[in-house]
Amino acid sequence: MGHTRVMEKEIFADVIEKIQMLTLSQQKFLQEMMANSEKISTISRKKLLKKSFGIWADRKDIKDSIEYVNNIRKDWGSRLERIKS
């Protein structure tokens, strides 16, 4: 068994032990909270990246995206110097 699985089992056992130390009222509250929690959908990084393409396409204040990004990057050096000093 890998080191990660051993650690996961130890953490799980620790959580169970701590839950058992709670009062019945606290255990019931925890059970209700977990039962009512909504499952958060996970989206793959690839899908998320694809959804982000073109989000600035309709911006009127950005004429040339390459020039815009280069101007932002140019300012990074001066910001870094201010932070260092």
Can you describe what's shown?
This protein is an all-alpha fold and 85 residues long. The protein has a domain at 3-36. 69% of the residues lie in helices and 0% in strands. It has helices at residues 3-20, 24-36, 45-52, 65-84. The longest helix has 20 residues, at 65-84. It is elongated and about 60 Å long. The N and C termini lie far apart (50 Å). The mean pLDDT is 84.
Secondary-structure topology with pairs:
Layout (H helix, E strand, L loop, with lengths): L2 H18 L3 H13 L8 H8 L12 H20 L1
- Got a strand count? 0
| Number of distinct helices | 4
User: What is the string of SSEs from the N terminus onward?
Assistant: HHHH
Instruction: Identify low-pLDDT runs.
Output: none
Q: Give the class from helix and strand content and strand pairing.
A: mainly alpha
Largest beta-sheet details: none
Percent in helix = 55-70%
Mean pLDDT: 84
Rg (CA only):
25 Å
- How far apart are the termini? 50 Å
Shape: elongated
Strand content: under 5%
What are its keywords?
mainly alpha, elongated, 85 residues
TL;DR?
This protein is an all-alpha fold and 85 residues long. It has helices at residues 3-20, 24-36, 45-52, 65-84. It has a domain at 3-36.
